[in-house]
Design a protein that fits this description.
Blueprint (H helix, E strand, L loop, with lengths): L1 E6 L8 E6 L8 E11 L1 H8 L8 E2 L3 E9 L11 E5 L9 E5 L3 E3 L6 H20 L11 E4 L5 H13 L2 E6 L2 H9 L4 E4 L5 H8 L5 E6 L6 H6 L1 E9 L13 H5 L4 E3 L3 H4 L3 H16 L7 E6 L3 H9 L6 E5 L1
Parallel strand pairs: 9-10, 9-12, 10-11, 12-13, 13-14, 15-16
Antiparallel strand pairs: 1-2, 1-4, 3-5, 3-7, 3-16, 5-6, 6-8
Bound molecules: NADP nicotinamide-adenine-dinucleotide phosphate.
Length: 327
């Protein structure tokens, strides 16, 4: 049996329930993992509130780290006793123990703690595919400017450090002066408090009127229009989330009028569709973390049964860096 954090209907944090579920043996291509820490991500909020619809009842959670207890037929890259971590579909990470597909689970290097592992897989692999693989025409070169919204959040603080390591000038936005200071400390070259400053005007000032080569925008509804106005001609808009709500339908001609812009709406799950791709991305991420170029900040820790409080804090913009649940 396992404690699992479930929803039976979509809604606010009040729909989150603590349940006890039976956990069986892994089938072909699956493992059973006992979590030491479970990651919290904004996608868990979209699953809970129904923005991303999934069958119910549902155990929440897409990210975790723990010890492999058993492996099913055909699983050769993991064995019982291995330390492991993952970002993976389907949800189910908010639990003590679960059975899940092995494909996206990788061995966790000894130098990385379980908490760091649970805090960094979904967020860190996201930064990996954004900054390494979701680049504007001609790529990202040292000195180039990019705009990264919510720069003091879980994904954001990893992005600040990763961009610094690439020599890219990351202009970070955040919702308070304290959060801006944190983003700056983690490698943002410039910061903008978008609660009280006009980020389009500030980006123009910072870039000498040129604008940025790429915008990485997971705030969505509230920042979409301004983000397009921050781009250079031929710039890339990577819209990868909706923390403030989904982006309204777009008139494509706008992209032409604003300078032949490129737009992509990526998701990590396309990037980690195969075991080989997941491992290669994880190796890159682990290298960044074990070399000290990227430090994983776990700023909020909650007992597993307090997952509802974790959602309240995340949605009310009270958190910085990553959050984990501890079973
Ligand atoms: N497509 C993908 O592959 C992918 C993968 C991972 C994450 N994401 C997206 O990346 C974003 C960051 O994820 P995360 O888990 O690291 O969360 P997070 O950044 O730690 O938390 C979300 C942050 O968004 C900002 N925000 C702006 N407007 C908001 C609003 N109306 N309500 C709530 N927050 C608002 C807040 O920062 P400020 O107060 O500083 O504004 C808040 O702290 C999310 O949108 C998530 O869906 C996408």
């Amino acid at each position: 049996m396992s404690i699992a954090i479930q929803i039976r209907r979509t809604g606010g944090p009040e729909v989150i329930e603590v349940a006890e579920v039976r956990v069986g043996d892994p089938g072909a291509g699956e493992i059973r993992i006992r979590h030491q820490a479970c990651g919290i991500n904004f996608i868990d909020v979209y699953h809970r509130n129904g923005l991303y619809a999934l069958p119910l009842p549902l155990t929440l959670g897409m990210e975790g780290a723990g010890v492999v207890e058993a492996v099913g037929e055909g699983v050769t890259h993991l064995k019982p006793g291995d330390r492991a971590a993952y970002a993976s579909q389907p949800p189910g990470a908010y639990s003590e123990v679960r059975v899940m597909p092995a494909k996206c689970v990788v061995k966790l290097p000894d130098a990385i703690s379980f908490e760091e592992g649970a805090a960094m897989m979904l967020k860190g692999l996201t930064v990996q595919y954004l900054l390494r693989k979701t680049q504007p025409q001609g790529g990202l070169q040292p000195g180039d400017f990019i705009l990264f919204h919510a720069a003091a959040g879980g994904v954001g603080l990893i992005a600040c450090q990763w961009a610094r390591a690439m020599g890219v000038q990351l202009i970070g936005t955040a919702g308070s002066d304290e959060k801006c200071a944190l983003a700056l400390e983690h490698g943002a070259s410039h910061v903008i408090n978008y609660q009280r400053e006009n980020f389009v005007e500030r980006v123009k000032q910072i870039t000498g009127g040129r604008g940025v080569k790429a915008v990485y925008d997971a705030v969505g509804k509230d920042t979409w229009d301004g983000s397009l106005d921050c781009l250079q001609p031929f710039g890339l808009m990577a819209s990868y989330g909706n923390a403030s709500g989904p982006v309204a339908p777009v008139a494509l001609a706008t992209l032409g009028a604003k300078g032949s812009l490129y737009v992509t709406r990526p998701t990590i799950f396309t990037h980690i569709a195969t075991r080989e791709a997941t491992q290669a991305m994880a190796d890159d991420l682990f290298g960044m973390v074990t070399s000290g170029k990227v430090k994983i900040r776990v700023d909020q820790r909650y007992a597993l049964k307090d997952a509802a409080q974790a959602h309240v804090d995340l949605e009310s913009r009270r958190t910085t860096g990553s959050s984990v649940l501890v079973p």
